[in-house]
Amino acid sequence: MKLIYFNDTGRFVRIHPATLGHGCIVSKDPIKPLETREFLLPKDTIPWVKMWDEKEMGLRILVSPLKETEK
């Protein structure tokens, strides 16, 4: 499955390292404002997404693949 994220926050969004560790394929570069980023997830999974503001560090996004049975 693939997830397309569009950054409409007006700020840079950094990719949490666990996104890659959990099996997603995505560029580690921060997502620029008005940029689209594609996250490729392992087969037969759905995305679980969390975004938060780390104040000094800025916005961070975590995309973690879940098996359909885990939802």
Structure description:
This protein has 71 residues and is mainly beta. It has one domain. Helix content is 7%, strand content 44%. It has one helix and five strands; from the N terminus they run ββαβββ. A three-stranded mixed sheet has the order 2-5-4. Strands 1-3 form a two-stranded antiparallel sheet. Strand 4 (45-53) and strand 5 (59-67) form a beta hairpin. The longest helix has 5 residues, at 17-21. The radius of gyration is 12 Å and the shape is globular.
Number of helices: 1
Poorly predicted parts:
none
The gross shape turns out to be: globular
Structural class: mainly beta
Secondary structure: elements and pairs:
Layout: E1 2-6, E2 13-15, H1 17-21, E3 36-40, E4 45-53, E5 59-67
Parallel strand pairs: 2-5
Antiparallel strand pairs: 1-3, 4-5
